[in-house]
Predict the structure.
Amino acid sequence: MTLNPDYIQQRKHRESIRAQKLSNSGDPIRRFAESCLKYSGLRTIARKKALALQLEHNNLFIKDLTPALNGYRILHISDPHYPEQYDHLLAQGIETLTTATDHDLAVLTGDYRDRSFGPYKQALNALKSLRPHLSKRAIAILGNHDPIDLVQPMQDLGYEVLVNQTVLVEHDGAGFDLLGVDDPSDYGMQDLQACLADCQTPHQVLLAHSPDLWSSAVSAGIDAYLCGHTHGGQLCLPGGYPVRRNVKAPLKMISGSWQQGQMSGYTSRGAGTSIIDARSFCPPELTLHSLSGC
């Protein structure tokens, strides 16, 4: 899908500003987290838990769903954060679980690169290796770690990358609109209205990197909202309560299934990790959503 050159230029400008800011900060959060794990003696077990990928099953309820779409399966992959130092265990874990999961459509909700700046070659290599394990159609959006320059290479690999765009997903003579907005977390270039203008069916499923667009999505009458970004907190207290939050959305939207008005939402805990390759009380996930009428 072709992007407006002015849009690309503006996105790159914002990426440059963000990269400069982050590179100057020296990753103090990363250093602090590493020190805490090291001196607590939890480094090894937290790393092991970060690789304990599991499959979550979720019913995605849509009011007045066309009967032919009932049971339609969407495999949701978010936040792999493939590191530049290629992690075979992470990539193989995602591929193995994907291969074992029957699905009709694959969607990816961003953050393919580990850091928010710098190289992304290994992320592309991992996405290339993953693509044969996915359904015939795989649709992706960008996260706050993903440069606009990833769009064309991902499309060359067989991914449909949506940047404020909408596509029609058809199944057994029925269909739904799949909307994909640009990252709302850091770049602020999402355009939900542009997506809505191209809708063709009574059913809309929105892909956004973070849950922070929930209010606009509810107002627009979106049926379902799939996102990630939060990692479920990644480092959590017992019971999955996040130590740190990186979104403005309500706490219930940090992880898993949630409902807001008529809209069904799901926030993935993500397949990878950010800042530090460790997890506690918050296992990584892939999610298999089944559309269900209500």
Observations:
- The first helix runs from residue 5 to 25.
